[in-house]
Amino acid sequence: MLYLQICFTNIQETEQEIVIAALDSIQFEAFQQTQHELYAYVEKSLFDETLLHQTLHNFQQAQFIQQYDIKALANKNWNTAWESNFPPVVISDQLLIKAPFHHIEKQYPYVIELEPKMAFGTGHHETTSMVLEAMLSLNFENKTVLDFGCGTGILAIFAAMKNAAHIDAIDNDDWAYNNSLQNIEQTKTAHISIQQGTLDLVKHQTYHFILANINKNVITATLQQLHQMLKPKGVLIVSGILKADVEAISSLAFPLFEKKPVIQYKGNWSMLIFELS
After folding, report:
1. pTM of the predicted structure, to 2 decimals
2. What domains, with CATH codes, occur in the chain?
């Protein structure tokens, strides 16, 4: 299988985070970050440079359209080098996310071991870490959960570790669906049902918790449907939202939720927690 390496130059850390989110939405599989460079990897057959430019425009990162180089990585296991630099993640000193090759002596209440495939969705990115941190303080015991846009499946896995009764996890991306299946099998996690497709797959279900770590466009398009799928006193957590888009999401949610959302920020990113009365 042939891969391409896209190297963005003169890109600061906060800008790298947004570009990673943009590229994740168009099937890039892995990322490496240095102080001023971002390396992104994509299967050659899936690369569309016109789509790349359009996506950078959509994420307000058009300044980087002329600031990248493309290199073919034929016959090279590009992921091996990246995996060797995959750092463990610790959330609030309670949850450890590690790779099989990490040897961590300190004990944590929760440990999730995943084969590293990409940075986005494994707890390294602010959007994922904020949701995981919020989940630490929530009671999932015997609750039903929807992980909408499950990515690596890490949120579904953590909900199961916190004794949720049943979790539905859905994603319309081939890579995300297959990777979630692999991670759930690897972690031997029960009570998770994964499906590939859209929200319509579970539109007749209701949940105590809905976790939507996706992006602004998907959230705005589905917010009303997500609201209808909540049980009484249900909780909706949305992330993948840039700080600049919080007002738009809050305004859209205002007629649906009587309570004001709890809003948290990390870097350029935000997370909103809505609760039904």
Report:
1. 0.76
2. 3-82 (3.30.70.980), 120-275 (3.40.50.150)
